[in-house]
Amino acid sequence: MKQALLCLAALWANGLLIDALHSEPVTALAFSPDGRALVSSGVRCLEIRDGVSGTIQRRLPCAMPKITGITFRFDGRLLAVSGGTPGVEGAVVGYDWDTGKRVWEMPITLDIATCVDFSPNGESLVVGGVNHQAEVWRVDRNAMPPTHSMTLSGHSAPVLCALYGPDGRTILTGGADRSIKVWSAVDGKLVRSLGHHTDSVNALAFIPKGPAGTGATPHLCVSGSSDGTVRVWQPDLGRMVRIIRRSEGGVFALAGKRDGTGFFSIGQAGVMRQFGMEDDAVLRTWNVSPDWVYSLAVSVDGGTVAAGDWQGNVTLVPLRTQ
Length: 322
What we know:
Elements: H1 2-13, E1 17-18, E2 29-31, E3 37-41, E4 45-50, E5 56-61, E6 66-72, E7 78-85, E8 89-96, E9 102-108, E10 113-118, E11 124-129, E12 133-138, E13 147-153, E14 159-164, E15 170-175, E16 180-184, E17 190-194, E18 201-207, E19 220-225, E20 230-234, E21 239-244, E22 251-256, E23 262-267, E24 271-276, E25 282-287, E26 293-298, E27 304-309, E28 314-318
Antiparallel strand pairs: 1-28, 2-3, 3-4, 4-5, 6-7, 7-8, 8-9, 10-11, 11-12, 12-13, 14-15, 15-16, 16-17, 18-19, 19-20, 20-21, 22-23, 23-24, 24-25, 26-27, 27-28
């Protein structure tokens, strides 16, 4: 305990903002599209924080004992939250962001929903599950409950992460079966399977196309695994661009830089690393937590990275002052 407190004091001294300790790991984070708020998972609630200071401003009740994912629709009017009761049931809950009112809940009855992501046009949701599947749901613009569209079946173990490609034409899923699968978002057909990881695939992130002259390639994806590696992919071609072996322990969370020039990784060691897109060199590191870190989110202006750890801390890392 003394060592942990000394580590927290050092983080404060380095200008990082850390929340008071909670009893529940912070497993999901998301900045609102306008950048004014940061939403984090709490104890049967969503904690709505100031997007700059990270201080909690209010809480939205959420009956799910475990929250696994938080995602905003592009227009900022709808918030979707995945989770449930492990081994019992899962669900995705929709909130009207302006009022904070829960507007719908869709049950995923087989087991907990592990992740959720909106399509770029906001018309669909992809939801991963412990039942080895991901499901796609159509979202009504008038806040009516989503309707089931298709099921993505092909993993042989729980789906741990899922997200839409930037153009909305593909869906990527990663699972405990050590594979990444690329699906057609139009008809749900499996396009290809990428199987280079040697342990669970815990996180996926797309890197947007960077500005001219940066060398960033459109539609690159990065994956993080319990095997301690991060891998960079061209999912449309099924090609692994590089493998990065820079982590001590498993990688649990990834976040792409909004300007397309790199990404951040973090996990079991509590050390956040920044990488560029040209090679596997570590550009910067931050000792974010003395414990495992499960979630990352980059602010809308690209100036801050938020991280949530096992002890219940939310840490805001300012990038532009480094």
